[in-house]
What we know:
The protein is an alpha/beta fold and about 180 residues long. It has helices at about 1-20, 60-75, 75-80, 155-160, 165-180, and strands at about 45-50, 80-85, 95-110, 115-130, 135-150. It contains five helices and five strands, in the order αβααββββαα. The termini are far apart.
Amino acid sequence: xxxxxxxxxxxxxxxxxxxxxxxxxLPEHHPTSPPPLIDLAGIKTIRVExxxxxxxxxxxxxxxxxxxxxxxxxxxxxxxxRAVVQPGTGNEDAVLxxxxxxxxxxxxxxxxxxxxxxxxxxxxxxxxxxRRDGKVVGQLTNTPYxxxxxxxxxxxxxxxxxxxAHLRFTNMLSNWLVYSxxxx
Length: 184
């Protein structure tokens, strides 16, 4: 028992001797806030339209449009705007036109698991959010988006045929598009 008390006393003396109790306070770290949203004042409804101009198109325009509309609607409290994917009725306050310019899959090395490969799926995209009066509110021009995936497929064409890869890339591209456009 005396040994434990002596050890505690020695530790306390060591802390005091090194000055640990009297160090200046650590600096405060404030998280950086995300960039502000683009000005969506007066926009209550956004029609989303997607066109795929890739030489060999893999992404389905209607699926990308639905993904983007879903992501926009998930942020409705933040933006105040509702997104729709129906043909234009002329009643929408703005149109988000997205053009997929190209798509590619490139092997990016061997993955850690036997028999798998690391692939990079890439798409080049342009997008314009235009108000009914013709004013451009947000724009991306010939902008690349890529993300890594791990597959067993040996060929780039087979990667695009994988249903889970197709769905994951569509969802990730939709998330990126909405974030990039809203943050300007």
